[in-house]
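In the lab's daily routine, each protein ends up as an entry in a very long ledger. A line of letters takes care of the sequence, but it says nothing directly about the fold. The three-dimensional part falls to structure tokens, numbers that each stand for a local backbone shape. The outcome of that step, for a single protein, is printed below.
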Amino acid sequence: MTFWMKCGIKTVLVAVILTVILMPGFNRDVQAKQLTPVKYEEVIRSVFYLPSYVALSKGYFKDEGLDVSIRTSWGSDKGIAALLSGNADIVLVGPETAVYIQNGESPEKVRIFCGLTATDGSMLISRNKIESFDWQNLKGKTIMSWRKGSSPALFLEHILRAKGFNLKTDVTIINNIAAPARHGAFVAGNADFATFFEPDVSKMAFSKTGYFVTSIGRQVGNIDYTVFMATQSFINKKPEVVQAWTNAIAKAQKYSLEANAAVIAKEVAQFFPKINEEFIAQSIDRYRQLSILKASPLVEPAAIKALQDLLVEGGLLKPDQRVKYEDIVVTQFAKKAMGQN
């Protein structure tokens, strides 16, 4: 074989390779193979966590090199159990769980690296329509809350104490109904009042099975309510994954605050298959109006202090068990993501 024949064959091979590489879908397939799989678990399914669904539906996680699988744990306790057992890489739960784990016996500790929500996104719902609500309307009534020690239970109890209620004698609080069963239990008549997240609030308003009374979060003020956590060992081992995650969420937070609600509703509708898109859009608008959606992924020291004040007040944390902010929160990922957006 002559030199020129060899060159000709090489030229043809190069041309074939280039043709394959430039074929539609080739680069996409190669990129898909390079994505890092991440097992993600959310505490509940709610429009309250809008930026996480935006990051999934608009491909922000994939843009950052992550292939995210999502699962709903229906409880912070279950989410943390999945994280500590290795069944989840990243979880979305209440920040109080980091405090509990830090004070606990688990050799593996968890760290908050990215905040998602500015305050409690639950709403107080009444079985009957109330034209002019006063907190005294709750006296002698039964209120369906969430699991004892969870963020929504803490926030509700804090407000009731602030309004002068004796939680043992003035109201009856139900804490033992599992998250997936709460809607059905309330509609069935198990309580006079309850706290729910969107889109359940809009759904009940439409069906006239529950009526919006007030926002719990706006009553309490800004305290980071749901955050992304990973174990310290995962963060040490895969800091690039944690950074990529935070970058995607920061971008999604911005989009969630600025884009048209109806457009976003259509984009995230796949995560709420049984919910009318109009209800999803209404939920987004309500959370925006109440300033409940967080504008940045950074969790500030003041938020962790306020959270621990609630834990102490509720008898779930002794004053000498307060943990240091820097022992449960890592800030470098959020700060870097904010610099990029």
